[in-house]
């Protein structure tokens, strides 16, 4: 990140956010008074999000949790059985599924 170059030689993923943060600090602070840097907190937050993706990950977890909760509350009526999923429906009979799972041949 320090050089601003990414792995492929171009600008890094978060370099534009870094430039925006640096510009904010240059405009809002001087050598005697650094309290203007507080105005840059939203920009700093955007830069950290670009680096670490914490908010994105939290949103993804929340969506997955809500989806699983909704799926558990309303189970599918014609969901495939475990045996059908195991043999991909190729054998077709429950007996064949059990023989394949036990390793025996007919």
UniProtKB/TrEMBL annotation:
It is a peripheral membrane protein. It is found in: Mitochondrion inner membrane; Mitochondrion intermembrane space. Keywords: Disulfide bond, Electron transport, Membrane, Mitochondrion, Mitochondrion inner membrane, Respiratory chain, Transport. InterPro entries: NADH_UbQ_OxRdtase_FeS-su5 (IPR019342). Accessory subunit of the mitochondrial membrane respiratory chain NADH dehydrogenase (Complex I), that is believed not to be involved in catalysis. Complex I functions in the transfer of electrons from NADH to the respiratory chain. The immediate electron acceptor for the enzyme is believed to be ubiquinone. Belongs to the complex I NDUFS5 subunit family. Mammalian complex I is composed of 45 different subunits. This is a component of the iron-sulfur (IP) fragment of the enzyme. This is NADH dehydrogenase [ubiquinone] iron-sulfur protein 5. It comes from Stereocaulon virgatum.
């Amino acid at each position: 990140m320090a050089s601003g170059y990414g792995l492929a030689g171009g600008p890094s993923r978060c370099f534009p956010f870094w430039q925006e943060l640096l510009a904010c600090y240059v405009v809002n602070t001087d050598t005697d008074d650094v309290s203007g840097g507080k105005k840059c907190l939203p920009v700093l937050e955007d830069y950290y999000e670009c680096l670490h993706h914490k908010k994105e990950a939290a949103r993804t977890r929340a969506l997955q949790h809500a989806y699983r909760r909704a799926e558990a509350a309303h189970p599918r009526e014609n969901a495939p059985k475990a045996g059908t999923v195991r043999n991909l429906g190729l054998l077709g009979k429950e007996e064949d599924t059990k023989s394949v799972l036990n390793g025996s041949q007919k």
